[in-house]
């Protein structure tokens, strides 16, 4: 987990609590996650992938690979989603 003087990446608790997750200003165009999240909720057994341009707190640009997984109950009913993100690594 990358850290800076403000702690772990992501919004600080005073900005996150009670806020809609797609309103976070985290250097990633979170509004582009709405469609994959909705698709995961509609078909939770299918993962969805996308690659977004993003920037870190130091202002450095990078490509962010995002995978959206459905979180399901034992009955198969959608309970929520899990988002995993990773920085694209250059290939040599």
Walk me through what this model shows.
This protein has a domain of 61 residues: PAS domain (Beta-Lactamase, 2-Layer Sandwich), CATH 3.30.450.20. Helix content is 14%, strand content 37%. It contains 2 helices and 5 strands; from the N terminus they run E-E-H-H-E-E-E. The strands form 2 sheets. Strands 3-4-5 form a 3-stranded antiparallel β-sheet. The chain is flat, with a radius of gyration of 15 Å.
> What is the succession of H and E elements?
EEHHEEE
Q: Which sheet architecture does the biggest sheet show? A: 3 strands, antiparallel
Strand order within the widest beta sheet = 3-4-5
What Rg do the Cα atoms give?
15 Å
- The CATH H-level superfamily of one domain is PAS domain
CATH class bucket of one domain:
Alpha Beta
According to CATH, what is the topology of one domain? Beta-Lactamase
Query: What is the mean predicted local confidence, pLDDT?
Result: 83
Helix content: 10-25%
- How much beta, percentage-wise? 35-45%
Descriptive terms for the model:
two-stranded antiparallel sheet; flat; mainly beta; 92 residues; three-stranded antiparallel beta sheet; Beta-Lactamase; 37% strand
Architecture blueprint of SSEs:
Layout: E1 3-4, E2 7-8, H1 13-16, H2 34-42, E3 48-55, E4 61-72, E5 78-87
Antiparallel strand pairs: 1-2, 3-4, 4-5
